[in-house]
Amino acid sequence: MLKKELILRNPLRQLGFETEDILPAGAIGAVLSHAGVGKTALLVQLALNGMLRSRNVLHISLNDPVNKVNLWYNELFHHLAGRYEGAQINSLWESVLPHRFIMTFRVESFTVPKLEERLSDLTEQGIFSPVMMIIDGLHFDESRRSDLNDLKALAAKNGIHIWFTVRTHRHESSGSDGLPVSFSAVAGLFDLVLELQPEHADVHIKLLRGSGSTPVGSPLLLDPSTMLIKDKEL
Amino acid sequence: MSSTVEKVRNIGISAHIDSGKTTLTERILFYTKRIHAIHDVKGKDGVGATMDSMELEKERGITIASAATFCEWQGHEINIIDTPGHVDFTIEVERSLRVLDGAVLVLCSVGGVQSQSITVDMQMKRYKVPCIAFINKCDRSGADPARVIAQLHSKLGHNAVAMQMPIGLEADFRGVIDLLSMKAFYFEGENGEQVRSDEIPAELLAAARSKREEMIDAASLFSDELTEAILEESSIPDALIIDAVRKGTLLRKFTPVFLGSAYKNKGVQPLLDAVNQYLPCPADVENTALDLDHEEALVYLLPDSSLPIVALAFKLEDGTYGQLTYVRVYQGTLAKGAVIVNTRTGKKTKVGRVVRMHADQMEDIEAAAAGYIAALFGIECASGDTFVSPGLNLTMTSMFVPKPVISLAIFPKDNKSQINMSKALNRFTKEDPTFRTHVDDETNETIIEGMGELHLEIYVERMKREYGTDVDTGKPRVAYRETITQRAEFNYTHKKQTGGSGQYGRVAGYMEPITEGDEDFIFDNQVRGGSIPTQYIAACEKGFLQCLAKGPKMEFPVTGVKIVINDGASHAVDSSDMAFQAAARGAFREGYAKARSVIHEPIMKVVVETPTEFQGGVMGLLNQRRGMIVGAQDEGPMTVVEAQVPLGEMFGFSTVLRSSTQGKAQFTMEFALYRQIPQSIAEKIAEEFALRKKSAA
User: For position B464, which CATH number holds?
Assistant: First the structure.
């Protein structure tokens, strides 16, 4: 069955974490890279993996409108399911769509209380209860510490885990831990930090900080042409 | 009429509901001296704007049918079609865009890019219509043109570039700064008819310079000369910039943006200048037709008045003097007395009167040359027909026509109403291909079909007013469909050989769901060796088609089915077309019973714009209606919620939405896709079907 095959094919399993979700409920993780390297693509794939396993995903974008975010999901899903028949893919896509909810905010007006209110609107009416949240486009520095603390509390309260995208800049220097200096100020709040590093024609997915066992097997790559996660051997 | 086609502009004004299109057109007609007084759309003087000629339009404050008019500005002839914004009238916008060369996309400076703007933009893309944008209502509280320009980028993917800057906003909106001439423009006089140019206010000069640089930079992508001039830091002539912007606009890679407030009489005259400068003339647009004598080979049409005529009928209206047919002439000259041929029917006609339209008033002309829009009297045709000179056999590509998604039974209250209702329906269906009517075989009810509740509501109202027909309406019915989900074989023999002339036919093969493409039905004849004689193959197909019209499950149309016939048998005496049609019908029923059929329902894309405080409630309403919410977009004080909701759950939604949001939210709805219904709904429909059958019996 297509759904099962897509889940089994998921190379994220090789990141070697104890649970399929990588992050447990209440935990927060970050994906770091320069602009355009593939942070959103990676998180969308994590989301798709969750949706295929009937987990509800709340995707929050501070950059893009609903249609554009939808396009990401559409494109990546169809790449993932590429070699299967059109009707099968469409039918599966229709069945996993209800597991995703997209919310967009303007960067300047995004606040945690606002997010909490929106989330309550959904959960209290039984409309949508996410287990995974993606927050794409939040800017990070020391001033965000209290927001991150609040978001962590929100995650714990609602049994959600949250992924963030963190844009780093070429001109920024890294600290001794390999993390950009501006991010270091809040890095301690994160349970897991992945970094996307372009190296020649590939984009490597590197674990900078994380709990759980050491990843088994070869490092993971992002294929720049499709933005899909792939095994190094492929 | 203008003698050179270079100075002609055929434009449409398209946008979301209530963006101010009709007011804008009214102002355009006034400034071009086409009319001599301005009337507000919902005016206290009870007259209403010139373009909203139907009573219903004036009363509701919405534009229903498209109206055409022309005017002149700075030596150019501009033909304008005012188009409705409601999604229920999309066919009017589709038709207009098919025949126009350019468009003005009107946006509200507060609402910005709204759901119908997105639909209209898609329509413009489909017909490759270049456009300029006009951000209207800059005098309104909350006006934010910069935000609207950003939305043009993010929501519509336009390379939108400001050609002006506002001088003040909201109540303080006083004029505009033209970034080309670097002058400020103020609109004075009782109706803003006097345009005064002045120096740019000192406090806005730096910003204006910066914006001008951005504009020139964006335009330079379309002109090497302009790029050179920038690099050489030499002074840049206006003509060079205009030329570059025009090139970009015609390629649909640049959208010049203008500002104003039509209601406050500001910014309209510069918009007219922009129409002349940046939108295409008929010669700039490539138009093609299909040559039916050469296997539909593509033929390029030239806007040359001396060539044979090629014209497209895009709108029909039944007036006091008979049918009025609006045409766009793509080639040749459509003159009084000319002989033209309708390619679809083959019928020859001599052209009687040729008129030029101004909303609901007419002006007789001698001829309409290539590139122009005119109207003809006394021509029997359907919307979308092509007219050519004798000797040509060309057809313009058919216009895309969406299928109806909702139907409703109507019952005339008395005999007189019955007669008038027939007349009304006959006229409306000829004018609007998305509005259809038929009589239900079983119940004998007259059924009307359309694109939405409002669409049908308006026609019922028009029947009452224009034909004095009082009708009652039944509950709206959703256009469900049946389809199959697995392959099934059939092998059916139709035999009646009990004496006298008999019937015999056997049809064997299989049916399967269509998995790729949008086709409703594919018939594949794989019969070999004459097991079904060739002359009966068409009868087989006909028999299958008859079954598709009313599915065996619940008599809904059957779609998405591929039927392959690969064997059969015939009788030398008893086989006939009738026999094989019957055999095919039997074969269909046999296969269908094994093919795991399911019911599909139309799913609508519903977009609700609501004040953020009501967002939760709106999502609840959609959720209660089996809606799947795709997303919620924060737009400052407003939130836009997009959902997919079954059409069957949407009836009465507007009333509920209004009461839940203090009337502050609005929504649009358009067909998205067909999807399988849940089991519980399938059971409910089956019950209703059984009840209907019982009462009909």
Answer: 3.30.70.870
CB-closest option in B155, B630, B675 to A102: B630
Closest partner CB to A101 (pick from B513, B629, B634): B629
Are A31 and A208 in contact by the 8 Å Cβ rule? The answer is no
CB contact under 8 A, A109 and B634: yes
What is the model's pTM?
A: 0.63
Chain A residues with beta carbon closer than 8 angstroms to that of B630: 66, 70, 97, 101-102
Question: Residue B60's pLDDT band (boundaries 50, 70, 90)?
Answer: very low
Q: For CA atoms B44, B194, B164, B7, give the dihedral sign.
A: positive
Q: Are B661 and B647 in contact (CB under 8 A)?
A: no
Is B352 inside a domain boundary? Answer: yes
Architecture (CATH level 2) of domain A2-13+22-212: 3-Layer(aba) Sandwich (3.40)
- The residue of chain B nearest to residue A98, with distances taken between CA atoms, is B628
Give the pLDDT of residue B337: 92
Q: Express each pLDDT in B471-527 by its tens digit.
A: 888 877 788 899 999 999 999 999 987 777 789 999 999 999 998 777 789 999 999
Give the domain extent around B630.
600-680
Give the residue numbers in A contacting B (CB under 8 Å), as ranges: 64-70, 85-87, 94, 97-98, 101-106, 109, 118, 120-122, 125-128
Question: Tens of pLDDT along A131-155?
Answer: 999 999 988 777 788 889 999 999 9
Domain count, chain B: 5
Chain B residue with minimum CA distance to A103 = B632
Chain B interface residues facing chain A, Cβ-Cβ under 8 Å? 154-155, 513, 515-516, 615-616, 619-620, 623, 628-634, 636, 640, 642, 675
Q: Are residues B294 and B416 in the same domain?
A: no
Residue B361 and residue B301 share a domain: yes
Question: Looking at the predicted structure, is the pLDDT value of residue B52 above 60?
Answer: no
Instruction: Specify the higher pLDDT residue, B314 or A55.
Output: A55
Q: What is the ipTM of this complex?
A: 0.83
Query: Which residue, among B192, B201, B142, has the nearest Cα to B167 in the 3D structure?
Result: B201
Contact list, B516 vs chain A (CB under 8 Å) = 86-87
